[in-house]
Amino acid sequence: PLSLDEAYLDVTENKQGLASATAVAEAIRAAIREETRLTASAGIAPNKFLAKIASDWRKPDGQFVVKPAMVLDFLAPLPVGKLPGVGKVMESRLQALGITTVGQLRAHGGNELERRFGRWGRRLHELSLGIDEHPVESERPTTQVSAEDTFEHDVPLEQTGDAIRRLAEKAWAGAKRELERSPRTVVLKLKTADFRILTRSLTPASPPSSLAQFTEIALELRQRVELPARTRYRLVGVGLANFRRNDELPPQGGLFDAPG
Q1: 149 and 243 housed in the same domain
Q2: C-alpha span between 208 and 227 (Å, rounded)
Q3: Which of 13, 46, 85, 97 is the most exposed place for a label (fewest CB within 10 A)?
């Protein structure tokens, strides 16, 4: 699992006997719809980071396949910020070199990128070619539990409250399944109508001890969004991050000492 409502699945060995990875994705989405009445999107690709990008292509209720022969053409027009690990600082440094798309990044060549950025430059070039050998790991310590949703229509910031409250309930329920580890940080994620992603976070002195307190912090994080009032948002997400073992938390106890 990547988060409360997002996960990777390696179907190299198809244990259900379905004909293809596409068929597996279709079956999973159908099962989610039947059991929860919720939609789900899926990305099918040769590796994790490509599948992650592809999963955004048909949101909120569809799937997109990136076949091996499509990888280079699929990546070429994408903004470099779509590559994992390319944050705003690195994106600005690349833009200073005239690099705004993955195709332009690829054209610079691995040697030139390594000369400028060291080993990370070599890694960037590999990503521009669609190369990523990171395996799918079924068991790993939780680092963040989150939930997000795409609005049917873009909305102003002040109209995101109901969605934040609903998503906070999902994230809180997911975090409570971690019996030995608790989160310290509250995270708010927003995506604007022009696909700009913003995150705001807060690590209080003491972890939130109830759903109400967690939700209150998530709602207040909107005050740190300094975009024009006319800005519209297509997605909102709420999460709990920075998980620590309960014995590493402050003396007052863990996240769930008080009822939620």
Answers
A1: yes
A2: 27
A3: 13
pTM for this predicted structure: 0.54
Each of the 260 residues of the chain gets a pLDDT tens digit; together they read 566 678 888 888 777 778 789 899 999 999 999 988 889 999 999 999 999 999 998 888 889 999 999 999 999 999 999 998 888 888 999 999 999 999 999 999 999 999 998 888 999 999 999 999 888 876 666 778 999 999 989 999 999 999 999 999 999 998 888 877 888 899 999 999 988 999 999 999 888 889 999 999 999 999 999 999 999 999 999 999 988 877 665 544 444 444 44
Backbone angles phi, psi at 126, to 5 degrees: -60, -45
Q: Quote the domain boundaries for residue 237.
A: 144-248
Give the residue carrying structure tokens 């995101």: 160
The verdict on whether omega for the bond into residue 60 sits within 30 degrees of 0, i.e. cis, is: yes
Residue appearing with tokens 């390594």: 114
Q: Which residue is catalytic, options 6, 114, 169, 216? A: 6
Within this chain, do residues 31 and 86 fall inside the same structural domain, yes or no?
Answer: no
CA 117 to CA 249: how far, in whole Å?
37
- Residue 66 CA to residue 254 CA, distance in Å, equals 43
**Catalytic residue check, 6:** yes
**Domain match, 14 and 48 both:** yes
